[in-house]
TrEMBL record:
Monomer. The active site is at 405 (gmp-histidine intermediate). Binds 2 manganese ions per subunit. PROSITE patterns: UPF0027. It comes from the Bacteria. It comes from Arenibacter algicola. It catalyses: a 3'-end 2',3'-cyclophospho-ribonucleotide-RNA + a 5'-end dephospho-ribonucleoside-RNA + GTP + H2O = a ribonucleotidyl-ribonucleotide-RNA + GMP + diphosphate + H(+); a 3'-end 3'-phospho-ribonucleotide-RNA + a 5'-end dephospho-ribonucleoside-RNA + GTP = a ribonucleotidyl-ribonucleotide-RNA + GMP + diphosphate. Belongs to the RtcB family. GMP binds at residues 206-210, 330-331, 379-382, 386, 405-408, 481. InterPro entries: RtcB, RtcB-like_sf. GO terms for biological process: RNA processing; RNA repair. This is tRNA-splicing ligase RtcB. GO terms for molecular function: GTP binding; metal ion binding; RNA ligase (ATP) activity; RNA ligase (GTP) activity.
Length: 482
């Protein structure tokens, strides 16, 4: 199947549609949030073919959607959103991804860039020493079976109970850092083994811990509510459920593919394997996914403890503590209520490489954010910039309360390695005032700025579409990578 420009209808500025009539298997239209320039770039890979395939999922409603940072994934495109009717619509592990609850959080300091510049190199080295990073790298905590089940059940609350975090952090996390449907008994022993020593680790790939400063404020009222000010130093943490989440996905994708014929389900791409949510296989996967999501929230909380420890080691015990502004997931499925064609419906929203972006009045937000909307954290590529946005009520109208999650790759990791001289790039970043600490030059090359779309254009598109508004721009000072 090939999709041409003439197959795509412009619904309005920054909103495009491949109509349901494009292909007989489609149950809903397929929609793209993008500028015309980004749409042309999106058409260079199979993202839109995958988007059309997603529109064939049993029980899907509204439309299948992709964000402007979209790129090709397995089954679902990365940057994809799909809502299915609860409880008998489909659940698809590929609509969540292998790194369950990969997500990002932001810590704020009371220091500005000028105050810490002279200790920046020392800070980058201390953070690298405190935060285990790299493929398969274990951390300081080794969970016994009882502790593992507690983490899978409690999520970030486990870190609070065990002295790694302040209870106030839970208020500033999506779902308070815990999904109640988790069932550790449905997570395989292999998955638990893989995760037993990975709490407090970032892993490899595009995961990182980054020291930034607030370069620009676009919305002073929202920035004040979020505790952001110009020149302020902040820390971004981006990682997920590590090997445990990957194993959960692997285990259940295999079983769900085998179970599909029992429910008479046929999909245009076998990687879109799915079952009804209320089937035994569907409910078991969802409960295991919730457990892996809890592991990821606990992981980011333990990393925050490590960052805070490094901060005190460099700046002294009297330094003001780093405060959690917000933590949001971007590889997850959530049971939510949305209005579709004027009717309020309970749905299962798959977000794969897409982040929740609810507007003002959303009851789960901290009270300081209620009149502003949910913080949306958009990391850029290494060496560029990142953004803080605020979700809007418009997002709930057109994207099931969802937004993009980053800049979005335009080069594969293999292509990036071929084009990038990592030692030269590291030195260039240093000349720009950015200290990079990484376990290998390979990791630096794979995550080079040229491997990603222009985050500025992606974010402008999001703002112009109305699904989120810009609050602040962040500029990197130091990066820790696997």
């Amino acid at each position: 199947m090939k999709i041409n420009k003439q197959d795509i209808i412009k619904k309005e500025d920054f909103l495009w549609e491949i109509p349901q009539t494009f292909r007989p298997q489609m149950r809903v239209p397929a929609r793209v949030i993008a500028s015309e320039t980004l749409l042309d770039a999106i058409m260079e890979d199979r993202s839109l073919v995958q988007l059309v395939n997603v529109a064939s999922l049993p029980g899907i409603i509204g439309a299948s959607l992709v964000m402007p940072d979209v790129h090709e994934g397995y089954g679902f495109p990365i940057g994809g959103v799909a809502a299915t009717l609860y409880p008998d619509g489909a659940i698809s592990p590929r609509g969540i991804g292998y790194d369950i609850n990969c997500g990002v959080r932001l810590l704020t300091s009371q220091q500005n860039a000028e105050e810490i510049n002279f200790k920046l190199e020392e800070l980058s080295k201390e953070m690298y020493a405190q935060i285990p990073s790299g493929m398969g790298k274990g951390g300081q905590i080794n969970l016994n079976p009882k502790e593992m089940d507690e983490v899978l059940t409690k999520g970030a609350e486990w870190a609070v109970d065990n002295g790694y975090a302040d209870k106030k952090d839970l208020t500033y996390m999506e779902s308070n850092g815990r999904l109640d449907n988790a069932d550790p008994a449905l997570v395989s022993e292999m998955a638990k083994k893989r995760g037993s020593d990975q709490l407090g680790t970032i892993g490899s790939g595009n995961h990182f811990v980054e020291v930034d400063y607030v370069e620009e404020i676009y919305d002073p009222i929202a920035a004040e509510a979020y505790g952001l000010s110009k020149g302020q130093v902040v820390v971004l943490i981006h990682t997920g459920s590590r090997g445990l989440g990957h194993q959960v996905a692997t285990d259940y994708i295999r079983g769900i593919m085998a179970a599909m014929p029992n429910y008479g389900i046929k999909v245009p791409d076998r990687e879109l394997a799915c079952v009804p949510f209320n089937s035994e296989e569907g409910e078991n996967y969802f409960k295991a996914m919730c457990a892996a999501a809890n592991f990821a929230w606990c992981n980011r909380e333990i990393i925050s403890w490590e960052v805070r420890k490094a901060w005190k080691n460099v700046f002294g015990a009297d330094v003001a503590p780093l405060k959690l502004m917000y933590d949001v997931a971007h590889n997850i499925a959530k049971i939510e209520t949305h209005k579709v064609d004027g009717e309020k419906l309970k749905v299962l929203v798959h977000r794969k490489g897409a982040t929740r972006a609810f507007g003002p009045g959303f009851e789960d937000l901290p009270k300081e954010y209620l009149s502003i909307g949910q913080p949306v954290i958009i990391p850029g590529s290494m060496g560029t910039c990142s953004y803080i946005l605020a979700g809007t009520n418009r997002s709930e109208e057109i994207s099931f309360g969802s937004c993009c999650h980053g800049a979005g790759r335009k080069l594969s990791r293999t292509a990036a390695k071929k084009q990038v001289n990592a030692p030269v790039l590291k030195e260039k970043l240093r000349e720009m005032g950015i200290y990079v600490q990484a376990g290998s030059f390979k990791g630096i090359a794979e995550e080079a700025p040229i491997a990603y779309k222009d985050v500025n254009e992606v974010v402008e598109t999001i703002q112009d579409s109305g699904i989120a508004k810009k609050v602040a721009k962040l500029r990197p000072m130091a990066v820790v990578k696997g």
